[in-house]
Amino acid sequence: MPQFTRKLCTLLAVALLPGVAGAETVSASDLPLSGAVESAMSRQAVDGETTPFTASAWLAALPSIDASYLQSQERLGTDETEIGLNLPIKSPFLYQQDSQLRELADGLSATEAERRRLYFSGLVREAVWTARIAEYRAQQAQKKIDLLEQLRAREQSLFDARGTTRYALLLVRQELVDARIELEDQRAQAQRWRARFRQVSGLGSIPGQIDEGPAPTGEAWQGHPALRLLELGWEQQRALIAAGSSRAAPWNLRLGAKRVETQAFSEDQYGVAIEVPIGFLGSDSQSSTSEWRNAARLYYRDRDELQQELAQAWQRLQLEAAYLQRRQSLLDESADISGELRSEAQALSQLNEMGSEIRIKRMIADLDRQSEAAVNQLLIGQNRAMSRQAAGIPL
C-alpha cells in the first residue's frame, strides 16, 4: 500500500502541473526521478497515432463502377445495357502482409514510446547527477573556505605578535583565494545544470533521491530500444516491399447486371466474375528486387554502426565502473591515513615541532582527500545510472 500511495501521489503531482510558464515554480524534491521524466514528456507532448488513412480488412483499393449501353442500328437488333461493380480484393499473400504490418505498427509504436522515455530519462539523469556532484563540490569548497578563514585569522594574530612568518599568512590567503574560485566555479556549474533540469522537466528543484538500482550485467545493451526500433523498421520495410510486389496483386471480383432488349423480348442477366493473377516464380519486377536489396544494404550498415556504438558506450562505462571501485578503495585508505596524519600534525604543532606552513598544507590536504572520496562515491552512483541508460532502461 505505501508503494501504491507513492505512485498515486506522483501521478497526481505530475497531472496537476501547470503550463510551461508556471511549471518552473513546482518543486520536485518530493518526486521520484520517474516523476521528473513524466513531467518532461508531458511538456513535449506529441500528437496521437491517428492518421488520415483507413485500411479495409479485405479491399485492396477503392471499388469502381462501370456502365455501358449498346444500341443496335438494325430493326430486329438487340440493345444491351450493362452495369458492373468491381471489387479489388486482397489476395491471401497481401492479406498476410497487411496483418504483419499491423502487428509491426503496434510494436513500433510501443518501442518508440520506450525510446522516447529513455531519451528524456537520459536528459534527466545527466542533469541531476552533474548538478548534484557540482553542488557537493561547492559545499566542500565552502567548508575549506570556513577552515581557511579560521586559519587566516589565527595566522594574522600570530603574525601581528611576531609568532609566525609572513609566508604562512600568504599561504593561507592564497589557498583561500583558490578555494573561493573553486566555489564560484562549482556554483556556476550547479546553476547551469539546475537550469537545464528546469528547462527539460519544468520542475523547480531536483528530486532529493536520485540513486538508482544496480546496473545490469553482461551484454545488456543488446536490448536497447534503438536497436529494436531498427530491427522492427527493417521488418516493416520488407513487408512494405512485399506488399507492393507482383505477388501481392489484388484479385478483382466483379458483380454485373445486364439487360438485353429486342422488339420480341427482353431479358435481365446477373452474374459474378473473378480475376485472379497467375504468379510465377521470379515474375516480380526488377524494381522490387532492387528496392529490397537497397533497403537490406542500408539496414545492415545502420545495424553494424549502432551495435558498435552501443557496445563501445557500454564497455566504456563498465571499465569506468571498475576503475571507480578500485579508486574508491584507495581513496578510503588515503582518507584514513590522512585523518591519522592530521591528528599527528596537531600533536606536533602543539609541541612546536611542525612549521605553520606544513601544518596548514596538512589540514587542507586532509580536507581534500575526505572530499575526493565522497565525490568518487557520487561518481559511482552516476556511472550506475548511466550504465542503466546505456542498457536502455528508462526511469
Commentary on this structure:
This protein is an alpha+beta fold and 395 residues long. Helices cover 64% and strands 10% of the residues. It has a 4-stranded antiparallel sheet with strand order 1-2-3-4, with no helix packed on it. The model is unreliable at 1-26 (pLDDT under 50).
How many helices in DSSP terms?
8
Please state the oligomeric state of the protein chains shown: single chain
Average pLDDT confidence is 83
Task: Encode the helix/strand succession as letters.
Answer: HHHEEHHHEEHH
Shape: rod-shaped
What spatial order of strands do you see in the largest sheet? 1-2-3-4
Please give the alpha-carbon distance between the first and last residues: 21 Å
Low-confidence blocks of residues: 1-26
Give the helix level as a range of percent.
Answer: 55-70%
Can you count the beta strands? 4
In terms of DSSP E residues, the strand content is 5-15%
User: Structural class of the helices, strands and pairings?
Assistant: alpha+beta
